[in-house]
Design a protein that fits this description.
Layout lengths: L6 H29 L10 H27 L2 H7 L1 H16 L8 H22 L3 H32 L16 H11 L3 H6 L7 H20 L3 H18 L4 H29 L15 H14 L18 H4 L10 H9 L1 H26 L6 H17 L9 H17 L4 H4 L9 H42 L27
Helix pairs in contact: 1-2, 1-6, 1-17, 2-5, 2-17, 2-19, 4-5, 4-15, 5-17, 5-19, 6-9, 6-17, 7-10, 7-16, 7-17, 9-11, 10-16, 12-14, 14-15, 16-17
């Protein structure tokens, strides 16, 4: 009997044995697929292929997390652990059940449900298995390498543009994204992690590393200034202020380096976007920073009115792209696949109950963050710079989501899934405190019941993925009609031209 090992023991040992390599591989594939997809063969375009990759990763996270949870945690304890997610999950499930007559009604609400469940599961797993620092190190290390090469290749693109007498630099930089704003989402997640390149790690004293890190940060900040990414810059500033207020002196090394990097970026902007182009081109073209809402106000008004139609449950998944227009201002404004405010979009489609669910989750995270911040300010928390940087990253993304599609674009969500997972692990109580949740010797019937529940949920996730693939096929079949009927261009949503599904009356007739 003494020689027999439970499944949880084997699973735990394998996690510890292969965690470092697996985390690095997942981070490498995710960052590579987001930043360098121009060099990777695609099937349905970069946006659609990234959505497929994100769906696969979310299912993998959920499947692995559920199998681990079913063998390591008592059911009652699991409910306690996931209590902050319950109201949000129920709002997505309710929307799924309430709108079964809509085509592909499962796809988007289940997607969001799995996304939030994925980072929660992985965050708990990393914390309980004492893998938080290993995961944080892997994400930061891979981000450093990927961002450096992206910055280096950006300079190459810049030199080619100058040599070809192409003055509209913002049309080719940032490169590799179908929309310049999709790159700014990535910058929002990653720029707060740049100071960690120098403040942590075994090579932090290396002169070469310091030069490479400063170069990377300067180029990324230059691109933010050049592309006039107001949402990113505002989000980053809010994240900076929040961690300074929360963590006090402990945040000073990170804050100083963050500000230095921003100054380097501004100097790079002066040299690369002002001085050199003014010497090379007769007409200096600089992208202006808009002082207005860029047409968002009519979209927000429409979303607000939508949210009141079936208060508090919303008009259903993807109602924004299928509903009859409710306000005159939106009727006369350009059409977009979303209202450029994630919270108003969720309120319009999934109801204010989903916003309440987000608020509950946010309050739970904030309470834990405040507790951790007190430890940091009291000098009781080692490696506090990790928590500071990831807190700033998540804060910036949450703020940016109020004016952009941070939680729609698949590239942003791929990067965000890794950052959110590490952040959720960082704000959890220490594993010694969490050990009350872990069942060292669960009865066999309880383990089997847990595995059965996990199996059902995993099977449901695979069924959902089949619906995702059907939706992708519908997108491809619909593309010709879409180009004819919507000449203004692509409308980003779940798929790149997210105007599908349309009302039945607008469906393209089937050809004989």
């Amino acid at each position: 009997m003494g020689s027999r090992r439970s499944l949880s023991d084997v699973l735990g040992k394998n996690i510890l044995d292969f965690s470092g390599l697996s985390i690095v591989v997942v981070a490498f594939l995710s960052f590579g697929y987001v930043l360098f997809i121009d060099f990777i063969p695609v099937l349905s375009g970069a946006y659609a292929d990234q959505r497929i990759a994100l769906s696969v990763l979310v299912i993998g996270f959920v499947a692995f997390g559920l199998l681990w949870l079913s063998n390591r945690v008592e059911p009652k304890s699991a409910l306690v652990m996931f209590r902050p997610f319950l109201l949000l999950a129920l709002s997505f499930l309710y929307a799924t059940a309430r709108h079964q007559s809509e085509p592909f009604y499962l796809v988007e609400p289940v997607f969001y449900l799995l996304y939030f469940l994925a980072f929660g599961l992985v965050g708990y797993l990393l914390n309980l298995e004492r893998l938080t620092w290993k995961a944080a190190s892997a994400v930061v290390m891979v981000a450093a390498v990927a961002c450096f090469f992206y910055a280096a290749m950006t300079i190459t693109v810049y030199l080619f543009a100058i040599a070809d007498d192409f003055s509209q630099l913002d049309h080719v930089i940032p490169w590799g994204f179908v929309n310049i704003r999709y790159w700014s989402h990535i910058a929002t997640w990653l720029v707060p992690l740049f100071p960690l390149f120098l403040l942590t790690g075994p090579l932090k004293e290396s002169r070469l590393l310091r030069i490479a890190s400063a170069f990377t940060a300067a180029i990324w900040w230059w691109m933010l200034f050049m592309s006039s990414s107001r949402g990113s810059v505002i989000g980053l500033c809010v994240g900076l202020i929040l961690v300074w207020l929360y963590f006090g002196r402990a945040a000073r090394p990170w804050v100083v380096l963050f500000v230095k990097f921003a100054i380097y970026g501004f100097v790079a902007w002066l040299i690369l976007s002002v001085i050199i182009p003014s010497l090379v081109f007769e007409d200096l073209q600089i992208r202006r920073v808009g002082s207005d809402s860029s047409g968002r106000i009519p979209l927000w008004q429409e979303a607000w009115v939508m949210s009141m139609q079936n208060f508090p449950f919303g008009m259903g998944p993807q109602a924004w792209i299928t509903h009859e227009t409710l306000t005159e201002a939106y009727r006369q404004s350009p059409r977009f696949g979303h209202p450029h405010n994630m919270y108003l979009m969720w309120a319009a489609e999934y109801g204010w109950i989903s916003i309440m669910g987000l608020a509950v989750l946010g309050v739970a995270a904030l309470r834990r963050l405040v507790f951790r911040a007190r430890e940091v300010r009291g000098g009781q928390k080692p490696n506090s710079l990790w928590l500071i940087a990831f807190t700033s990253s998540v804060t910036a993304a949450i703020v940016h989501a109020g004016v952009s599609a941070v939680f729609i674009a698949p590239g942003s969500m791929l990067v965000g899934l890794l950052v959110l997972s590490v952040f959720w692990a960082l704000i959890q109580p220490d594993p010694a405190v969490q050990s009350a949740f872990v069942a060292c010797a669960r009865p066999r019937p309880s383990r089997l019941a847990g595995l059965a529940v996990a199996g059902i949920l995993i099977f449901g996730s695979l069924f959902w993925f089949g619906e995702v693939l059907r939706y992708q096929k519908a997108m491809i079949d619909d593309l010709a009609y879409y180009h004819e009927e919507v000449p203004s261009g692509y409308l980003p949503r779940f798929w790149f031209h997210g105007y599908f599904p349309r009302p039945q009356s607008l469906m393209r007739p089937t050809e004989d």
